[in-house]
## 1
Amino acid sequence: MRDRFEIWGTYTTGCGSARKVVEKSPRSDMIAAILGTHVVGTFNLKVTKKVANIGFATTKPRHGFWYHKGRIIPMGYYLGRLTHQYKESVMVWVLSWHPFVATKHNAKCASIEIVSRRPIPDCFKDGSLLRLEMFSPWDKPAIDAWWPKQPFKWFQSFPWGPQRADGTKVWNAMYKWADWSKSTVLDVGCNTGWYSFQAAKHGSAVYGYDSVPERVRAATTIGEHIENIDVDFGAEDPGGNFDVILYLSVHHQIDKTYLDLADTLTRYKKRCKTIFLELIVPPPHNSMSPGAVKDIVGGEILLEYEHAVRCHRVLWLVPGELK
């Protein structure tokens, strides 16, 4: 099965039967969180012979969203990316409730519903032809063939990979201190995106960035084909303000002495309401005492623990300056 399918059409605003998908979804809590506050619109397909040949199953017993090489993709929700002709794009959920789109033998005009956690750009609403890519989930053999070849996989543990890190422990310590269902989140030094995905699963609109391109590519692939979560990843800080900034076990990689820690925190405080900060304490080069680190950070300690791989770590809740 191909990694993604591509169709073309136009976008209109409005809400139809999208909430019916939630009732049928095995991850209904997450989808409900997305539908609760975000944009629902309609994607009107431009059905061509090429599109029809992808095979949209419509007739019993082949009810499904699309039909490809004998395989029925059942109705439900799918992760996708909606792209304007000028290359601006937005992550969306594709919601298939009605069992008709088109058939291999009878292509016709049809529409599907899409949901986005992020505002739909105005240029998408002018009737321009848009590309909608839908990402197909990978099965276990595909994951097992891909994941062992990836670099940096030791630090963040996924249920389908080796369990070596302590992400769940840290997430549980942070969870009750933010309203994730309504937050915008910046994940600084996101690595392969584990914390980004946790926040997104609980309703947040998340942007994760990492300066290492291989990590960004891995996180993007995990989001599109394994976790199936709409997180935006990139190699640069997007700028702007956020409700929450995650700065977890990153600072020692760019400032081993912690001499720039105070300035870094000051910059991030100006951009958010809350920072979750995790540090190796004392710093790797023992250039600063634990007490001195705590004096710089301030805030409230949520967790202290010995990391499964290396070093003693401390997690703080640090108030930002935004209201």
## 2
Amino acid sequence: MARMPRSICEQRPQEIVAACRKLYQRLSFQEITLGEISKETSISRPSIYNYFHSKEEIFLALLQEEYELWTADLTQSFAKHPALTAQEYAALVGQSLEKRITLLKIQCMNLYEIEEHSRLECLVEFKKSYQHTLSTVEKSLEKFFPAMTPQDRENFLYLFFPFLYGLYPYVYPTTQQQEAMERAHIQLSPQKVSDLAALCLLKLLPN
């Protein structure tokens, strides 16, 4: 049997993750199966197991990719500015999250299940990317807000990143959630990810 070129082998995990990303735009986590992912790729369902052991591992890889993209975006944006006010910093980081809706959606709705059903080595690789994001944000605080102490920066991370876990449903409530709030007479004005994130950041940053 002819051996598959190494370049194709290396591309296949990216193809699988890209298919998962595409499906997640129109289907729920529960509706997405390895069979559905296979249909979006040139890879058979059994062959997917050569790269991922479960659907959850594919989603974990997608979330890892999202964090890496966010980190790269933040790094590039921070490098362009020698200084930023709290308002400018909040706006910059808030706007960067508008491009990371998939990140917010996964970690809000499916992260626990994804982590529980992924191999430890996959989870470790994801955590490395997550740590890189934390480090990037902490270094930006040190650069733009030198008055913040190490404890201040740690407190910031422990407050802002958990905040992100609950952000998605406030911006993208389901139809059922909207109807339930209407019946419960809860009036919430439409919000944007960037606006809510910036509001939180301004509360955490020094004046």
## 3
Amino acid sequence: MFGEGTPFDLQMHLARIPIRVIPTFWLMAAVLGWDPDRLDLVFLWVMCVFGSILFHEMGHALTAMAFGYDPHIVLYHFGGYAAFFPDRELTPLKSLLITLAGPLPQLALGLATVAALLLTKGWADQHLEPKSAEYLEFTLIFLITINVGWSLMNLLPVLPLDGGQATQAVFAGLGVRDPVDWALKLSVLVGALTTAALFHFNIRSTALLFLLLTVQNVQALQARRW
């Protein structure tokens, strides 16, 4: 999707998996957590976003590697993706397992972080300096926001989110005729309902995201009719 990269990209390997972080990833993460009065917390937020999304994409990539594929990871302004070339048969079951290997471990990590927040609340106040206790609490809250809140949204059956891709794999596994078409139809329905609900509760930034996804899926459906 992003070609060969630029000199400004952060590139590394983890578990033999190539990882590239495009500069716009850091920019968007900072924008989402921006507070000009607490730049220290903005930095903390960006690091939590980086670690959480990388953890998520590593789940996809490691599962793909276990099936014999050769994945790579790119983190960019809309989050991240783990890509590979399916040079051998990618069955619906394999596709489903690779898809769920990102959000489910991330959600489990988020729930574990909830437990950590509850367990360390009193302990941190008693045993840490006030500033350290504050940073610990914010770190756990940020991780919960990302790994629980974002994971649950990502599991909604809306393409191209993981939930939408998992739904498409399930349709294919059930032998549904044209699983992509059915996944797109469900994506439009769920996307529209989610958009309306988010606007109702005044969660505008996320509502705009789901509105964009809904429009894209409507366009994809129309393109398949031509």
## 4
Amino acid sequence: MVDFVEALKKFVNVEYETQLREIREMWRQPLAVRVAEGKAIADVEVVQASEDQAVLRCSENLSKFREGDMLLLNRGDPRQEPRYPCILEKERGLELIVSPDHSSFAGLSPGKGWVLDENACDLRDLLLGALDTLAVSQKKQECILGMLCHHVCPQLSTQREKEAARLADHLERILGLNTSQREAFIHAYATENYYLIQGPPGTGKTRVLAMIATALAGAGQRVLVTAFTHRAINNALRTIAKTTRYPHVFKVGQQRYDEDLVWEGGQVPNYEKFVHSPYSPQGKGFIVGGTCFALRTRRLGEVEFDTVIFDEAGQVTLPLAIAGMLSGERYIFIGDHKQMAPVIVGEHSEEWVTRSIFETLFRHAPGTMLDITYRMNAEITAFPSKYFYGGRLHPAADVRGRRLKLARQPQRYHELLDPERPSIFAEIWHTGRGMRAPEEAELAAGLAAEALACGVPASEIAIVAPFRAQGRLIRKHLQDLVTHHDDSLGDIVVDTVERIQGQEREIVIVSLTTSDPGYAAQCAEFYFQPNRLNVSITRPRVKRIVIGSPLLFRAMPEKAEHRAWVQHFQALHAESDVITISR
């Protein structure tokens, strides 16, 4: 057991040290290189500045930065003063709002000539502290390490199973539950230690989470809902409030992460600390959302929960999961290890430390897989079901035959946009392309524009690309088309795979981009990862158009595992409706 904890401590330290080393190496690069790599934004102007917030403006943003990222505002050399560690709060096109990290913006005044660089995020103390706590708690060790070492299986209470069955009967009448959802609900409610629920795309996992959390809180439990991201936590809390109307639901966390807690008819309250809420730590029957990090601070540290529900558990590392598990008695893990995995930056001799909590437990206690998708029609579902879910994922009866609705016949790309051909591979021959493929960018933008002209709302169109450089090129083509089409072209989502998970659209266009087999082989671990492919192709409801050059399939990565991954792409091509695009 000691070796297990020490291995996870080493993992935490290696991850941070690797992140810090890579960032410092990037800081030594010329500004043009940092910008090209998406690690910096040049020509930044400080528009407004106060001690606790600054409004910045840039002429171009080609960065990989996301809201919540740690950044460093500097004069061009991030190793030299003046420099201000900060957090990206909001991104509004070319306007950025940042707050200071652990200090203030004292001395910062409006002016030009600034640069934003990536900065390191050090959360080691919280994670290592959690592992130290585990090491000295015999009771928690027996439960948590017993689970993680595959010695402890889920244990269900017969009495609670009967209670859950009665509740499920009621929920079935008012909200509807399919067979797998019913099983997941009953077993999660009845568990005396832990249970897993695998939620493939569109299977209603967040709705099931809402029912479970509400039922447990209704029985008097203190329930925590946590996840890797604030977005996932907020989505879960919003779904609980909207679906069940349970009144005792709130979040504990910084106010800057509360924007999407609003729903049609209400808003989930957010408190900076639990003590600011109207509830007592010893109270009963409430549902609170918060990060695992908050549990290791004064925000939530004083509350002991009866049940901790992890959403998106396929993205939660073992140390982070342990930080959450220390605050609860029972655990429900909801996720999908076939979608996005944790982001790992370091090299680790022991592969098991890099797995998510969900994948770790799934190997010996897979729980229930939700097996009916309410998102994808039959043609869209077929490939992911066969290659990622053992043929067990099926479309619901009312979505099986759904088709793309067009207000008029397309004037361009008639074959590609044909509603009766839901799963298309647009074969476009090009060669030597790495992170940018102008041929695919032009086609993707043109398809989106034509779909919009045919009556598909911009909010129901998304374009996915593996590289931000390709995404920028696609957006540029869309901007060029705005003069000829509806201004709402700018509302079409163009993003990377990482940021599209959890979203869905009527039509999704996937640009594979790369046509250099050597380049693809070099970045095979990233590019051909099956989880990324699965996420990309399961966003659409009724129409999927994958654009790519068949030269990609000639990639021969060094590792046999990666070569097997390439075969997934070949299979997608073979099992799609292939249309060759002449140039």
